[in-house]
Amino acid sequence: MKRQKVQLPLQTLSLTAGFMVWVLISSLMPNIKQDIGLTEQEIALVTAIPVILGSILRIPIGYFTNRFGARIIFTISFILLIFPVYYISIANSLFDLILGGLFLGISGAVFSVGVTSLPKYYSKEKHGFINGIYGAGNIGTAITTFAAPVLAKTIGWEQTVRLYIVLLLLFAVSNFFLGDKKEQKIKQPIMQQIKEVYRNQILWFLSLFYFITFGGFVAFTIYLPNFLVNHFELDPVSAGLRTAGFIVLATILRPIGGFLADKFNTYYMLMFVFGGLTISGVILSFSPTIEIYTIGVLTVAVCAGIGNGTVFKLVPLYFSKQAGIVNGIVAAMGGLGGFFPPLVLTSVFNLTGHYAIGFMALSEFALLSFVIVVFMYYQEERQIDNKIIQNTAQGLMITNREGIIQSVNPAFTKVTGYEMEEVIGKKPNILQSGKHNRAFYQTLWSEVKTNGYWQGEIWNKRKNGEIYPEWLTITKISNEAGEIKYYVGQFNDISKEKMRMIK
Asked: Which positions fall inside the PAC domain (predicted)?
């Protein structure tokens, strides 16, 4: 039990260490480019490269975490990272930075470990908050962004990079000895899990959401240091401090976003997130001064932080059996979201001389996500309504205003013997027993149209020809304009009550 309790702090600190390594190149780029001549396009490529493997590997790492446990995956990942970190410390060309940076992506891929492992130890009501706390390991990017340039100023960027080897060894050993050997394992084949989820539109909606929220966080993390130096002529340390402020704010708000998602409707939270990102994209497009630009960036930090904590609340709710692979796919899309924006922004600037079009793209994608969230909200409401109908103990039949049957529930089938497929598109008179004359039905429908409902005893006929009594309520459903849209019939079989009265 004690070993289980240590998993949240251990895995959160492990993610912090991983993210500290992940942004090494982007944080030290102002120093590196003094020794290795790079163009702006090459700088954008080199700083974005770690995101590629860090994104792609999140899918298999999520799967293997479910299969082998967080202890093994964290330990192996940190040992493997020693090699690219050392290689970067001796880099002297563009190729060296690209090759080292590619494998540095392993440090970003470890994100999938905790979001797959930690929910196993907690109830669903706490998943948002727990994943939010774990996601606060993003603070590792702030630590490196702030500390690495300061250290580089004193001991040089090469020695600064080598110091991270000590960090990797420390956490490899910590996970090996403190990780949970008895973590619950799931050994379902990876292709089977992918086949079960890839057609589910919710998977791709969540991937888009995280592409924007986490992608925006990563993109600004690797893009801001160099941008602030070149565009606003800040020194590397000042640019690092401002970037660290962005990271800290987004990171602090991540567990808060998860906590709020546990307490309130998740879709309301996402509407706020994407509404805010839509506005911030517009602000950044027309920001002539660093003050206005700061407002836009801080708005991104707030919305991205809350959004990152909120999205992963939904994954275990919709995909409890395939959480590992889905966490990996969603996390991978978030990582890729951090790869493309810096390249797009640099290309746009080279073509147009400003960044407005790039930031407007952020605004438009956020607006699209806002519309999708609204769609998902109302779709869920309809699904809830349908579940209520399907689980109602009374027989239920819904017709349109022309009297054509649109839907029935399982209780309808149990009473009448008719399956849904047999009655959809037909009229309710298939149930008529012949015991009531035309005047009875005219009176019935007259009351429905006058009073809005009719209630009483009626004799109907089952599919097998048996005539039975039921207590029926018919209600008309109108829209806000007063137009009749549906009629709803609710009924109970009262045959047994009739028999008791006769006895």
From this structure: 454-503
